[in-house]
Write a structure and sequence with these properties.
- By secondary structure, the protein is mainly β.
- The strands form 33 sheets. Strands 9, 11, 16, 17, 18, 20, 21 and 23 form an eight-stranded antiparallel beta sheet that branches. The protein has a seven-stranded antiparallel beta sheet with strand order 15-14-13-12-19-10-22, with no helix packed on it.
- The longest helix has 6 residues.
- The chain is elongated.
């Protein structure tokens, strides 16, 4: 089990035994920005959380059921030490930086850095935070030891490598650059005898280039190294040396880090094998560059301490003393033994070309001399190839004139007095008269330069004219000198009593130029006075020691701990493991602590602001000499109007009651004024403290704080006027506040609402504000704050809201802003508060819910523009209490006032409804009677909202009804997959449904986690949480009754239980379809199983592949595994990845394991080409033509859909909507045509091409039909292909139209009276036959009006030749029956009867039909029935 917090990528890796989870931070939350960050990792049960600076958070769930973190290897902070485990492959780089307050389960891990053999190991960890981590990118880097170095990430050299830097060196040798690759590739740069040398290695070949001039220790030098496949170029200041490379050369492939100034210890071996001159001899193990470096660039990218990976023995800044000032070395160019170069040959000339011009004239062999010794130059050291006889000269006439004397020794010439000074001849060499004497310095070589000439008066060749300078090299054989021990600051070491003080190289130092500092050590001679104190290593505090290394001394790790006696001494001696130094005595003097408060000036701060407390404000001075002391300030009385704060990790300031002088020095202590209220008087502020140093505590001191109290000036508070509009913006002319003492930006002035206006809302960016909401002065200036009037009053009124003014400095008292609301007599005053109604009931809409009016008019008409969807509006008639007007479309204000308007809900399970209404003012009678033109009537669009309170009026409904399967005499969880009900009441939670069971004949229901607890009642929530367990015993089959209730309604059902042997069966095995070369996810929809075993988790269902796919691979969580679970399928973690071959069908076989039972199966995978992504192409969709009652074949000329990569048999049609007046049938070789009894639901394009699809027309008297299809190629589909069908009727369709004729008149039979509507009979020649003639008229031709027609042609009727003639009788209705007949088609229509309406004419005189005597009695009335006409 592991937990790894990796800060290079800001991630946390956790594995508790069931699988690894990784928490990643957000992309913008990088931690390598040289700032403090707070990283928190929480793990509780299966929840894991990482938070950075309390803002960026990542959360994950741990898999499995094991949630404990077992720390068997220990807790590592910053690195992994020697720990070697497989899961640390990506977290091996140690942390580099500062860590503070590591808390693990409330235990401070870094409370003590003291190592313990069994409990704690501390390696390369120091207290406090190094200046390296706060260095600026322009700060120089100081390399102060022979093992100093910094490393950067690998150097990516594409076409050209460039390294630039500026150096200042303290010694004339050292390694500047090293970066390596595989196969012997490397790039290196060194300083040797002050010269810059570059080396490029590619395999076994190697190229070297040297600068022409040396670097000096008294100044900065610019160095540029460039290399490519064509050349290598080295520049020192303005001098450039360049060398062309052979054709077809390759760049070195660099893989490792870039080392600057030196390399790691284990890399030295590889570097020494390269044979670099600066790393030869005693420098083979420690030959780092010593000096300063700045302006480092790699491939033009600036590098600094912010980019390094590892540092060793370096510091920020540059304070060096160069040994060049003591031993100046200015060689023209150092050559290997046996070669000579003229110093006049400068510039980018190839050294090989230069050598050829003199190599045959002069040969030199370097002189070897012991350190501090002497040796004679002989003729074997300098050889001149001259033809003396030809030139006519002797050996004594060859003269060597010394131009530049040796730097680390002198030449003694025992020559003739008359010979020119600093000159010797070839004869002097032969006679041993030239002697070199070394000065005993530690330099490994020396040299001098000379010219060659002759004393002859004859004309000599150019190389004997003394015009060229040559260099002679002297090799110094080193001798190990004894180290020298010194006390730079004197022999007195002063420290405070009972304190600890570390020694440094200023206290004790070793001088040994020929020994690496890592090989030097110091021993204490004699016995220390135990009563005085002891020496200890800061890495092992409390443990006395008598010897220590020079490296520990340089790192200030050697400390003297004083314990008692004030005066004592330590006798010290140094050793380089071969020789010992002189002995020195260091006197120890312990003095009493003395201190004083040197600064206590107090501080000034603005109200609500902060001020740093620096050493100029508060400082204590002690009498400690060059000794760091912890000076603590303990606050005894806190400030009244603020608090003292200290900066912690992640830059977080927290209140503190103590702080140190070190924190003050680092600017991490401040006073924060937290009092934000208005201050009337200039109250004084202070805090008191005591100083604690070592074990001494001072008296109490007072630190004054002068707070500059601030006040607001509300320059403008002018009421806002709302006149004819409902909205008005606030501006700076209405509301403006300032602080007179300081200038605060408008976006930092906040107005905080303390109350809201009663008649309207305050909006910010059109969003209503609430109490405690804020807006700024900038929002007011930008017109983003507005007042919105909700309802205009009947008369002028005033509204207001209260607010506070707030800045980061101070908070004002409560202020009031007022709004003056003007009235508009023509403005509609609308009440629209909505309605609340109970489900299925009705409710009156009154004036408090809906009412429109103006100040002068309450007569409004409402028009319903959109009726309610889940109810209706009605007007109530109270006389019979019945709705007198349903589906209401309009109503008036009078209906609302008379309480007649009602909304009635339709009893659906809806929670809201809405009505859209237009309200318009109705003009008064005076306005209507005046007749004057007026403005358009006032109107308003209204959305009337209705809220429905639901009732529990629905019974639960069973939605899962299946047999429950269980293993014989076994048990299994009862879940929602086996039994589930739903309550149609939308406001009811289905999980609260209560189940009550009756007797179970073959088992029992118990609580899952307590099987002794029988369940007689349980909720659906228990089924969802898998708390109900069924235990089988008895018969294999049984059923029992379940009663289900929602608390009001009951229902019952049976649950059938079937027990059998254990089994596992496939439920889904659909296969997988993916694009060629891609991957697809296998989910539970593609592959899943069912079983009667008691499965508590999908992890228990395991799929083990035994036959792997041939043309792809199955991955589980991106790992090529042969096993996965049903849980992996449910989460979509299983994928199949095709190998992009041309094989488009693949398969794999697997075995399903479920609690000891297994099932073998296989899964098919089909691949499709990219072109399959394009949808099919519809070529033809023509109209079908069929006769009534017959069929027509659908051919590819009528319906054709193709795809470039699909066969016709792969183009599948599915009937989207079937024909209305017929059906589709399909011919199959086995069963013939499948028709109406077995409807065709799908077919292919191949079926159409083969003529197997037919449309059959079945319903008569129809002229058109249609159906729609969906078609797919298996990848892409086209929906809604419409196919129209024209039906040729069995009978000629005849549409008749009745007509009217005047009494005794005539009417031409128009085409609309006898119309054949279908287009199939437009040009049909047919005849009309009268089956029944008119009874009160006749059909006649205009040519023979007296002849009665019994038939006529269509052409005659179209020409207007056929008429109906009335017989002038008093009959007002007539009719005749007609059919259409076509001899050509052999068709006729059905008989149709046409009615003729006769318009009567008053053309007859009245006739008396009854005239009898009327008898009447006096004072009586008699019915007037005595006269009839």
């Amino acid at each position: 089990m592991l937990m790894v917090v990796k800060l290079t990528g800001e991630e946390v890796r956790i594995n508790l035994g069931a699988g690894e989870r990784v928490l990643h931070s957000q992309r913008n939350s990088r931690l390598n920005d040289s700032a403090w960050h707070l990283v928190e990792v929480h793990h509780e049960t299966d929840d894991a959380t990482m938070a950075i600076d309390k803002h960026h958070q990542a959360v994950t769930k741990m898999p499995g059921v094991l949630f404990e973190l077992n720390i068997q290897h220990g807790l590592y902070i910053g690195g992994t030490g020697s720990l070697s485990v497989s899961w640390l492959h990506s977290a091996q780089v140690n942390f580099r930086g500062c860590i503070e307050d590591v808390i693990f389960n409330k235990v401070s891990i870094l409370a003590s850095l003291r190592a313990s053999p069994r409990l704690k190991k501390v390696h390369e960890v120091s207290l406090s935070c190094s200046d390296e981590f706060f260095a600026h990118e322009d700060d120089p880097i100081s390399f102060f030891s022979s093992k100093s170095y910094v490393s950067f990430p690998s150097w990516n050299v594409q076409e050209e490598g460039i390294l630039e830097c500026t150096v200042q060196t303290t010694v004339p040798r050292g390694l500047l650059l090293y970066s390596s690759g595989q196969g012997g590739d490397f790039v290196a740069m060194e300083i040797e005898n002050g010269l810059i040398k570059a080396h490029i290695g590619k395999g076994k070949s190697r190229i070297q280039l040297s600068s022409l001039s040396p670097v000096h220790g008294n100044g900065w030098h610019s160095v540029i190294l460039k290399f490519s496949a064509k050349y290598i170029e080295l520049s020192l200041e303005k001098e450039t040396v360049k060398k062309l490379l052979p054709l077809n050369s390759n760049l070195p492939l660099l893989k490792g880090p870039v080392y600057i100034g030196g390399v790691e210890d284990h890399i030295w071996v590889d570097v020494v094998k390269l044979g670099l001159s600066s790393l030869s001899g005693k420098y083979a193990q420690a030959g780092s560059f010593r000096g300063c470096m700045r302006d480092l660039k790699i491939n033009l990218e600036k590098k600094s301490l912010k980019n390094v990976v590892v540092t060793k023995d370096i510091s920020v800044g540059c304070k060096i003393e160069s040994v060049f000032d003591k031993n100046p070395v200015v060689p023209p160019e150092k050559q290997l033994a046996g070669t000579v170069m003229p110093t006049s040959a400068i510039g980018p000339m190839d050294s090989k070309l230069r050598k050829d011009s003199y190599d045959q004239f002069l040969r030199v062999n370097n002189l070897i001399v012991p350190e501090g010794g002497q040796a004679t130059l002989e003729s074997k050291h300098i050889k001149v190839n001259v033809e003396f006889k030809k030139l006519g000269i002797r050996q004594s006439q060859i003269l060597f004139k010394i131009k530049e004397q040796p730097s680390h020794g002198q030449l003694r010439l025992d020559v003739e007095p008359e010979q020119e000074q600093s000159t010797f001849s070839m004869l002097d060499l032969w006679q041993g008269r030239v002697l070199y004497m070394h000065d005993g310095s530690e330099e490994s070589y020396d040299y001098f330069t000379f010219t060659i000439s002759t004393s002859s008066k004859k004309e000599m060749p150019p190389y004997l004219q003394g015009k060229k300078d040559y260099m002679f090299t002297i090799t110094v054989r080193p001798i190990n000198d004894a180290p020298e021990l010194t006390l730079p600051n004197g022999n007195l070491f002063i420290l405070l009593e009972h304190s600890k003080k570390c020694l440094s190289v200023n206290s004790v130092n070793i001088s040994d130029a020929d020994t690496n500092s890592t090989d030097l050590s110091i021993s204490v001679l004699g016995n220390l006075n135990i009563d005085a104190g002891f020496l200890e290593n800061s890495k092992s505090p409390g443990k006395a020691m008598t010897d220590f290394s020079y490296e520990d001394l340089k790192h200030s790790s050697v400390c003297f701990v004083h314990t008692g006696v004030k005066n004592s001494r330590i006798v010290l001696r140094a050793s380089d493991s071969e020789k010992v130094s002189n002995t020195v005595v260091l006197r120890i003097m312990a003095i009493s602590l003395d201190y004083r408060l040197v600064n206590n000036t107090g501080a000034e701060v603005l109200q609500g602001d902060t001020v740093l407390i620096t050493l100029s404000h508060l400082a204590v001075e002690t009498n400690a000499f060059q000794q760091e002391l912890e000076i603590h300030y303990e606050i005894t009385q806190s400030p009244q109007y603020g608090e003292i704060q200290r900066c912690h990790a992640a830059g977080e300031w927290k209140k503190t009651y103590s702080f140190s002088q070190r924190s003050i020095r680092r600017s991490r202590v401040r006073y924060a004024c937290t009092f934000k209220e208005m201050q009337q008087d200039n109250a004084l502020e202070h805090f008191t403290f005591k100083v604690s140093i070592l074990n001494k505590t001072s008296e109490e001191f007072l630190f004054p704080v002068k707070v500059k109290w601030l006040k607001y000036n509300l320059q403008r508070n002018v009421p806002l006027v709302i006149d004819k509009v409902k909205k008005e913006y606030l501006s700076s002319d209405n509301l403006l506040a300032v602080i007179e003492e300081i200038e605060v930006p408008e976006n930092e002035f906040y107005y905080k609402l303390q109350s809201l206006p009663e008649r309207g809302n305050i909006l910010l960016n059109d969003i209503p504000l609430q109490i405690n909401s804020t807006f700024t002065q900038q929002d007011i200036s930008d017109y983003k704050v507005e007042y919105h009037l909700i309802s205009r009053p009947h008369e002028e009124a005033q509204d207001s809201f209260r607010f506070l003014i707030s800045t980061k400095y101070v908070i004002s008292n409560i202020c009031v802003f007022r709004i003056n609301v003007k009235t508009d007599p023509l403005h509609i005053l609308l009440t629209n508060s909505g309605l609340t109604v109970t489900e299925g009931e009705g409710k009156l809409i009154t004036q408090s819910e809906l009412f429109a009016q103006t100040l002068n008019n309450k007569a409004f008409q409402y028009k319903v523009t959109r009726s309610p969807r889940h109810g209706k509006l009605s007007l109530i008639n109270f006389s019979d209490s019945l709705a007198s007007n349903s589906n209401l479309s309009s109503f008036t204000n009078k209906d609302i006032i008379d309480r007649r308007l009602m909304y009635i809900h339709d009893d659906s399970e809806t929670v809201c409804d809405e009505i859209y209404i237009t309200a318009a003012a109705v003009a008064s009678e005076a306005e209507l009677s005046s007749g004057t033109e007026t403005e358009p009537p006032l109107s308003a669009e209204i959305k009337f909202n209705i809220s429905v309170q639901l009732k529990n009026d629905e019974k639960p409904v069973r939605v899962v009804d299946q047999v429950f399967h269980v293993v014989k005499n076994g048990k299994r969880l009862l879940t929602l997959a086996d039994l589930c009900y739903h309550d149609p009441d939308t406001d009811f939670d289905d999980e609260q449904l209560l189940y009550t069971r009756r007797g179970i004949p073959n088992g029992d229901l118990v609580l899952a986690n307590e099987t002794s607890h029988r369940l007689y009642q349980f909720k659906q929530e228990d089924l969802a949480q898998k708390q109900v367990l069924f235990i089988h015993h008895g018969a294999d089959y049984g059923r029992f009754v379940l009663f289900v209730t929602d608390g009001k309604h009951y229902t019952s059902s049976l649950l059938e239980v079937s027990a059998s042997d254990p089994y596992v069966r496939l439920v889904n095995n659909t296969g997988l379809l993916i694009q060629k070369g891609r991957e697809g996810t296998i989910t539970a929809a593609n592959l899943s199983v069912t079983t009667n075993e008691d499965i508590r988790s999908n992890h228990e269902i395991v799929f083990q592949m035994f036959l792997f796919p041939k043309y792809g691979q199955v991955f589980v969580n991106n790992l090529a595994l042969g096993t996965f679970t049903q849980h992996d399928l449910s989460l979509g973690h299983v994928t199949y990845r095709h190998d992009d071959s041309n094989n488009l069908i693949d398969t794999f076989n697997f075995t399903v394991y479920v609690k000891g039972i297994q099932l073998e199966a296989g899964m098919n995978v089909r691949m499709y080409l990219e072109s399959h992504q394009r949808p099919p192409t519809v070529v033809h969709t023509s109209k079908l033509l069929v006769e009534e009652g017959k069929l027509v074949k659908i051919t590819k000329g009528k319906l054709l859909v193709v795809h470039e990569n699909s066969l016709p048999s792969e183009m599948k049609f599915t009937i989207r909507s079937p024909p209305v007046f017929g059906y589709l049938q399909k011919f199959t070789s086995e069963e013939g045509y499948l028709g109406e009894d077995n409807p065709v639901l799908s077919f292919t394009q191949q079926d159409i091409n083969d003529g197997n699809i037919q449309y059959v027309q079945t319903i008569s008297n129809q002229l058109q039909d249609q159906f729609s299809l969906d078609v797919t190629s298996g990848i892409q589909a086209i929906s809604g292909i419409e196919i129209a069908v024209d039906i040729i009727p069995k009978f000629i369709p005849l549409e008749i139209q009745n007509f009217t004729v005047a009494e005794g008149g005539s009417k031409i039979l128009e085409e609309d009276f006898l119309k054949i509507p279908t287009s199939h009979f437009v040009e049909l020649n047919c005849e009309f036959y009268l089956l029944e003639l008119p009874k009160h008229g006749r059909i006649a031709s205009s040519h023979f009006s007296g002849m009665v027609l019994t038939k006529f042609s269509r052409k005659q009727m179209e020409q207007g030749l056929i008429s109906y003639i009335h017989d002038d009788s008093e009959q007002l209705l007539d009719n005749f029956t007609v059919i259409v007949n076509s001899t050509e088609l052999g068709k006729q229509s059905l008989p149709q009867m046409i009615f003729v309406n006769v318009s009567p004419i008053n053309d007859e005189s009245p006739v008396i039909r009854r005239n009898k005597v009327l008898r009447s009695y006096q004072a009586h009335l008699t019915p007037a029935a005595f006269l009839c006409l």
